User: Which sequence fits this backbone?
């Protein structure tokens, strides 16, 4: 499943055919439609609107985050037979009989195609048709890639849950443990009523996503050790390179872990990183193999495993996962081999 989806229609509207052509001549050209030369070449061309989704020069709300999986649905209609859609700065992948990567896609009238993109270049970038007569008069826009890690919050925030304390400390710019906790191991939290200090030992749901310094395993281990009651943990986009076997040893009650959009290549063959965990979200990492020791064995309780977006995993690797299917409720493979492991 994509994080964002956008549909773009490349179309040339011929307003010379509009029922309002006489009214427009009368209002904007200040001329009599009966005597006005409607076949004048420059006039005819000026009424051919080269647009994307009905907009000239700018399609609003084409915003995404760096590293997200974006699905572009491209459509073309009208008289022109081809559009050359150019995405500046970021490449896409088009899957047909083979997988093709590029930044310009030929789109024919009456056709539609879907492109996948995981943008890496942050900024505002051009997106346009490369046919000169199209781009010059409106068939152009921009799309914007944001970097969440650059938008740090000054303080954690709390969400009201029925029985759990959910603390969002994402985008906090954490450098060391003490940037998150005070000397009494409390987290400074913003509520509507004001600022309070919540004991780390009482927090059950914690979001530490988009804090790149936590990719340092030593800092992360020291931080997590102060949250013994954690049930759910988010560590998305923290630049994590590996998952140590003892990382969650101090979190015996931990059941749900989200590790999306990191750089994890291998899970440890030893240790118990998934001992009590029931839901493990490893989408969009760089996994090359998954050891059966991580997933099954004495004390393992894994029920939901998500490996989508790890396209270096091979079908054989996925089929060799000796998962205990008596407890597994849901398991999906990478996008490249989706469907090998069916939902249970």
Assistant:
């Amino acid at each position: 499943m994509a994080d964002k989806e956008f549909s773009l229609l490349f179309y040339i509207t011929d307003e010379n055919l509009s029922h309002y052509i006489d009214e427009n001549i009368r209002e904007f050209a200040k001329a009599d439609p009966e005597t006005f030369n409607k076949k004048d070449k420059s006039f005819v061309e000026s009424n051919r609107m080269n647009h994307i989704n009905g907009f000239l020069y700018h399609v609003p709300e084409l915003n995404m985050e760096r590293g997200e999986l974006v699905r572009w649905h491209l459509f073309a209609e009208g008289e022109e037979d081809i559009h050359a859609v150019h995405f500046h700065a970021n490449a896409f992948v088009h899957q047909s009989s083979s997988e093709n990567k590029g930044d310009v896609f030929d789109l024919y009238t009456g056709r539609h195609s879907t492109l996948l993109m995981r943008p890496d270049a942050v900024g505002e970038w051009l997106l346009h048709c490369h046919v000169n007569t199209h781009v010059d008069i409106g068939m152009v826009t921009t799309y914007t890639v944001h970097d969440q890690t650059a938008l740090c919050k000054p303080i954690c925030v709390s969400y009201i849950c029925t029985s759990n304390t959910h603390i969002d400390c994402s985008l906090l710019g954490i450098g060391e443990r003490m940037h998150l906790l005070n000397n009494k191991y409390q987290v400074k939290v913003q509520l509507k009523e004001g600022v309070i200090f919540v004991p780390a030992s009482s927090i059950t749901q914690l979001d530490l996503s988009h804090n790149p310094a936590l990719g340092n395993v030593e800092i992360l281990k020291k931080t997590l050790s102060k949250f013994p009651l954690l049930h759910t943990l988010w560590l998305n986009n923290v630049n994590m390179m590996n998952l140590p076997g003892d990382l969650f040893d101090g979190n015996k009650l931990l059941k749900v872990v989200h590790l999306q959009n990191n750089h994890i290549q291998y899970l440890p063959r030893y240790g118990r990183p998934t001992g009590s965990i029931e839901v493990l979200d490893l989408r969009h990492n760089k996994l090359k193999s998954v050891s059966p020791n991580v997933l099954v064995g004495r004390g393992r309780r894994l029920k939901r495993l998500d490996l989508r977006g790890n396209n270096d995993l091979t079908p054989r690797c996925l089929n060799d996962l000796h998962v205990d299917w008596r407890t597994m409720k849901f398991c999906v493979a990478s996008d490249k081999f989706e469907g090998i492991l069916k939902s249970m």
Q: What stands out?
A: Confidence is low (pLDDT under 50) at residues 322-330, 333-344. The radius of gyration is 27 Å. The first helix runs from residue 21 to 28.
